[in-house]
């Protein structure tokens, strides 16, 4: 598993003397815009952020990296604000042309995050969002990175994203059980997902009772 540092000392997210990391306000502003566009997407981002934070901590990453991963997870689908509803909420499979549009959301998200403050300040989160749909076998997007080329934070977000999508009702599928979702993650370990990250996720999220906090039905997330 890669342990690429996510922030240089100059980019660390905790301002001196502050209990809250400084990018949180920027992230919250962006997420507020997203919640107007899609309440279900907003809910999904909150779920993925809390899963990614737990998994990153379990991995033993420095707290500054945990915080960048949480922020990036909270924003990983922000580029979907620019994707038409006809694609996001399409009940059936996407055509090749529609997929090409959909795949632009990671790069658009990176651009939105970088433009939200100075490039340096949000750069670690923007980089993770860009890579959140890369695949372990190199067939992901936008850069076709594989295995050790993918930042561990992006690999964690990818697994948490897939898990939350499977556990929630979508226009194109019903929510699956925790056990089914875990089995699917393990089935895709080594192709779509980093196997070490999948096992880390499984050991971190041993149970998940969605009946306490159901996610509204959403589109393609
Ligand atoms: Fe997502």
Topology record:
Layout: H1 23-37, H2 39-59, H3 63-75, H4 85-88, H5 96-102, H6 105-116, H7 119-130, H8 152-166, H9 178-187, H10 195-204
The protein binds fe (ii) ion.
Q: How would you characterize this protein structure?
A:
By secondary structure, this protein is mostly helical. The chain has a single domain, classed as Hypothetical protein af1432. It has ten helices and no strands. Helix 2 runs antiparallel to helix 3 (63-75) and helix 8 packs across helix 9. It is globular, with a radius of gyration of 16 Å. Mean pLDDT is 82; it is low at 5-21. Fe (ii) ion is lined by residues 44, 76-77, 161, 221. Fe (ii) ion binds next to loops.
Number of helices in the DSSP assignment: 10
Q: Which hetero compounds are present in the coordinates?
A: fe (ii) ion
Major sheet attributes? none
Shape assignment: globular
* Cα distance spanning the termini: 25 Å
Strand content: under 5%
Average residue-wise pLDDT: 82
Oligomeric state of the chains in view:
single chain
CATH superfamily: Hypothetical protein af1432
Q: What would you report as the Rg, rounded to the nearest angstrom?
A: 16 Å
Short structural summary:
The protein is mainly alpha-helical. It has 10 helices and no strands. It starts with 22 loop residues before the first helix and ends in a 17-residue tail after the last helix.
Attribute tags:
221 residues, Hypothetical protein af1432, binds fe (ii) ion, 0% strand, mainly alpha, single chain
